[in-house]
Amino acid sequence: MAAQAVPERVERIVIENCSIATVDADDTEYASGHVVVAGNRIESVGAGRAPEGLENVVRRIDGTGHLVTPGLINTHHHFYQWITRGLATDHNLFDWLVALYPTWARIDEPMVRAAARGSLAMMARGGVTTAMDHHYVYPRGSGDLTGAIVGAARETGVRFTLARGSMDRSEKDGGLPPDFAVETLEGALAGTEAAIDAHHDASFDAMTQIAVAPCSPFSVSTELMRQAAELARRRGVRLHTHGSETVEEEKFCHELFGMGPTDYFESTGWLGDDVWMAHCVHMNDSDIAAFARTGTGVAHCPSSNARLAAGIARVPDMLAAGVPVGLGVDGTASNESGELHTELRNALLVNRLGPHRERALNARQALRLGTYGGAQVLGRAEQIGSLEPGKLADLVLWKLDTLAHASIADPVTALVLGAAAPVTLSLVNGKPVVEGNRLITVDEDALARATRDEARRLAQIAAGA
Question: Is the entire prediction scored with pTM above 0.85?
Answer without folding.
Answer: yes
